[in-house]
Amino acid sequence: MTNELSYTIEEVSQLLKVSKLTIYDLVKKGELPVFRVGRQMRVDANDLDIYINKQKTNQNQKFQAPIVHHSRNETKETYNIVISGQDMVLDILGKHIEKNSPFKALRSYTGSLNSLISMYNGECDIVSLHMFDGDTKEYNLPYIKKILVGYPYILLNLVCRKAGLYVQKGNPLNITSWSDLHQGNIQIVNREKGSGARILLDEQLRINNISPRNINGYQHEETNHLSVASAIAAGTANVGVGIEKVSKIVDIDFIPLITERYDLVMLKTPDNERLIHSVKEVLSSRQFQTEVASLGDYDTSLTGTIMYETY
């Protein structure tokens, strides 16, 4: 495996034939070293070989989760945490958490539902959610209650933002609502299963009695808002679900249809008390809220509000 200098998390998961979340869990526990290139984590090929050989020779031996840094006469323990989700606001959150706490923020760019399941399995520390429930018209909590069964947790608002439909410049097909998606001349580009945008689309199709089989392009999936918007800008599709911010980056039109609550959920365990305190402090700080608001298209009026908490 030493032909390559380094691997992405996805490449490592393919080589080891396990999920990306399993790799993130190894990184979080300190068992697999990583380094960053911009926003992307990479694994050195030699480190991967060392990990594999260690599992062969001594499967019971584990590395310690804390990463210990020695600076002159001081010893500082840094604890890896995994923040799951795709919005750029999560990168800002991670940066602020690292400033005044012992936590090092690692990022998993995974959709809401899969992230929540990974939290249930102990593989994520902070999960971001924007999952719409068509029956209650509520965001996130209906799903959390069904998945985090038996776990105490806290749900905090990160931001609110507009979600809706990306369309080509000038909206040539005059798309104005979810019910327009059944038109035969519409070619959609979809998000991957488990993402908040995919859940929003599927719930709206159900509410409007539209069968996915009647949606041209329903099987065409992309893994992030930017890829969906880019497909529409390039003309390979003419409508997709996403958030307002990205439409301005790609310069396409956006039809706002719903205000979604983008929340954070954390498990309430003794080990997580300090992390929860740090996240609360960051979300309520003027510095964080000002930085997020300066990006535009994010509503911080609820940021830091406890939306739900179990004991």
From TrEMBL:
Q: What is this protein called?
A: Excisionase
GO molecular function ontology, one term from the record: DNA binding
- Please give the SUPFAM superfamilies that the UniProt record associates with this protein: Periplasmic binding protein-like II
Residues of the Helix-turn-helix domain? 7-55
Q: Which residues form the PBP domain?
A: 98-283
Q: Which domain of life is it from?
A: Bacteria
Enumerate the InterPro entries for this protein: HTH_17, PBP_domain, SinI_DNA-bd
